[in-house]
Amino acid sequence: MNVQTHIPTSAQAGARSAPAVPNKMVARDVKVFYGAKQALKGINVDIQENKVLALIGPSGCGKSTFLRCLNRMNDTIENCRVEGLIALDGEDVYGKSIDAVQLRARVGMVFQKPNPFPKSIYDNIAYGPRIHGMATGREELDEVVQTSLQRAGLWNEVKDRLREPGTGLSGGQQQRLCIARAIAVSPEVILMDEPCSALDPIATAHIEELIDELRENFTIVIVTHNMQQAARVSQKTAFFHLGDMVECDDTEEIFTNPRDERTQGYITGRYG
Amino acid sequence: MQITVLVLILALLTVIGFQMGRTRAAASVGGRVVELHSVPSYHGFYVALWAGLPALFLFVLWTASEGWLIMQMVLASLPARLTSGDPQALNLLKADILNIAHGISTGRESDPDVVAAAQHYGTLRDIGDWSLLAVGSCLAVVGLAYGHRRIGPDLRARNRVERVVSVALIVCSLVAILTTVGIVLSLLFEALRFFAVVSPLEFLFGTHWSPQMAMRADQVGSSGSFGAIPLFAGTLLITVIAMVVAVPIGLMSAIYMSEYANPAVRTWLKPILEILAGIPTVVYGFFAALTMAPFVRVIGQDLGLDVSSESALSAGIVMGVMIIPFVSSLSDDVINAVPQSLRDGSYGLGATKSETIRQVVVPAALPGIVAAIMLAVSRAIGETMIVTMAAGLTANLTANPLEAVTTVTTQIATLLVGDQEFDSPKTLSAFGLGLVLFLVTLSLNMVALRVVQKYREKYD
């Protein structure tokens, strides 16, 4: 099913920047309800290929909810209802032709708290490729593990202890392990939900560098509470407030010349 | 009588002491309670403790030593011809004196000296009780007065009272520990008496169990051999059958309850499963003996197998059913304790629910599940009623689950049921068996606890 042609152009997004880069994912009028409570009130966002989109906003504004809609992680939450259109390469991710499990292999996720499985470092990385049957032989799997760890900048630190449990690593290393684990499945989009909030500044700097490198091969959406981080790592920024997307534009624009006074209030620290 | 009065007096004095202490504490600062080191009620408790504790100590000390002390005095006054016998005769004499003193008929004509001694005993006890009442009451009053006098704004009443409370807490936990130690020691000493008669090697490695001892020299068929291997083998066989039933069913139902069942189903399913744990084992025993055993027998006959009416299989199956709630409830808790973030991490990589459960959730919960199974095993090994009713008494050394076997616990129960003389190896062997059983379940529990601890360190 191809709905690319039916997707209306967003009123807010991309108004001032030429759409030179193709949209990897689009969200149109996305509403999310938890039971009777509405968490998102009609979100329109374009996610451009090989760019980093940062979602900022005060706590409880719906950033994480929106992020979890993009790979249907909200499916696991009881009485959560999603309305509107979310498309990946022009295909409705909530459509009948897409299975949530397959979708999540294409749209990977890294979480707020590092969550390595209680397995060895090697098995943590090999978990995804194994369940998806992506590597046929032992050597191929070794290769996937090595390249994933190298791209996550963790290889040199762990190459001598691949058989040790992943839970024995430091917090920053664990988070890079989780990123490597996500990369190993070769997703097209990586969603990151405050990936640095449990880490110290040095580990955070590591991860930020990594995000910038990963942009070459992946499309990244990152939720962050840290506005400096949003400014450092993203090309596009969307500001959420009370379930609405207030503004979405080039990161520079948002931080230097916000159009909405709520955005200005938040980035200058007046509230949030 | 005197003791009841003493207890009432002590209770009254502590209540009075509490009131007096509280009032005096408040009065000592002219009603400005904030100037006290401790709030007034702590001063009240302080005085109450002074009133109650010393007298209570005296009371405990007296009750513990009263009988022995008085008996020594009575025996000293008896003529030597009565007290010079061997220890057994002396014990008999003491019992006679006590019985007569308490007005219980000994069933035979008593020696006048013994009757006199019994009267003497009664008099001494009366004197003792009256003096206990007097001394105890005095002690309580003196304590109350002392505590009351010490009350002032600077008295650290809270710290004193809390120290007494912490000592009381320690004493309570000591009771549990000392009881365990006492049980173990009594088991150990009786078992040693048994091993003095029967060699431990024969007991542990012999293959023939027939504990009947010949009472007369010419009696036949009662050899008295104590090879416990058939019992251990029977216990093992039934435990294995029980675990084969309980572990898969318990684990699967735990996985269903924690991962698949919606909350509505879960809220009524879990309590129902736990009802299974509340059924008395005797009832399981009926079920095993009257329903399961004939059923197994009929099925076996249809298949052309020879099944004895008391089979290890039926007892094991019913025991397994009994243990299901153990395994499922504990495993369910452990699986629920696996952080949601691990499941999310797996789903986020495109894993299906079953892949997530098999490869992430169960491995993460495995230490806890192992601990649950260990506890279930020690429960199965110690279970008595079901096997007594359904597994039989024949000490059969067999691995065939269709035959009757007997277990360690069943044998202990049968050895000690009814009137028994406690000096024959037959009865003492129960303690030997008990000791082995205790050591096995103790080590299983210790391993289980160790595993659980390791698991906790990992996720907190």
TrEMBL record, chain A:
Pfam families: ABC_tran (PF00005). Keywords: ATP-binding, Cell membrane, Membrane, Nucleotide-binding, Phosphate transport, Translocase, Transport. The keyword Ligase does not apply. It is a peripheral membrane protein. Gene3D superfamilies: P-loop containing nucleotide triphosphate hydrolases. One of its GO terms (molecular function) is ATP hydrolysis activity. PROSITE patterns: ABC_TRANSPORTER_1, ABC_TRANSPORTER_2. GO terms for biological process: phosphate ion transmembrane transport. Residues 25-267 form the ABC transporter domain. GO terms for cellular component: plasma membrane. InterPro entries: AAA+_ATPase, ABC_transporter-like_ATP-bd, ABC_transporter-like_CS, P-loop_NTPase, PstB-like. It is found in: Cell inner membrane. Part of the ABC transporter complex PstSACB involved in phosphate import. Responsible for energy coupling to the transport system. This is Phosphate ABC transporter ATP-binding protein. It comes from Azospirillum doebereinerae. The lineage of its organism: Bacteria, Pseudomonadati, Pseudomonadota, Alphaproteobacteria, Rhodospirillales.
TrEMBL record, chain B:
Its main location: membrane. The chain crosses the membrane at residues 43-64, 164-185, 231-255, 275-300, 312-331, 430-452. GO terms for biological process: phosphate ion transport. The keyword Acetylation does not apply. Keywords: Cell inner membrane, Cell membrane, Membrane, Phosphate transport, Transmembrane, Transmembrane helix, Transport. Residues 232-448 form the ABC transmembrane type-1 domain. Belongs to the binding-protein-dependent transport system permease family. CysTW subfamily. PANTHER family: PHOSPHATE TRANSPORT SYSTEM PERMEASE (PTHR42727:SF1), PHOSPHATE TRANSPORT SYSTEM PERMEASE PROTEIN (PTHR42727). Part of the binding-protein-dependent transport system for phosphate; probably responsible for the translocation of the substrate across the membrane. This is Phosphate transport system permease protein. The lineage of its organism: Bacteria, Pseudomonadati, Pseudomonadota, Alphaproteobacteria, Rhodospirillales.
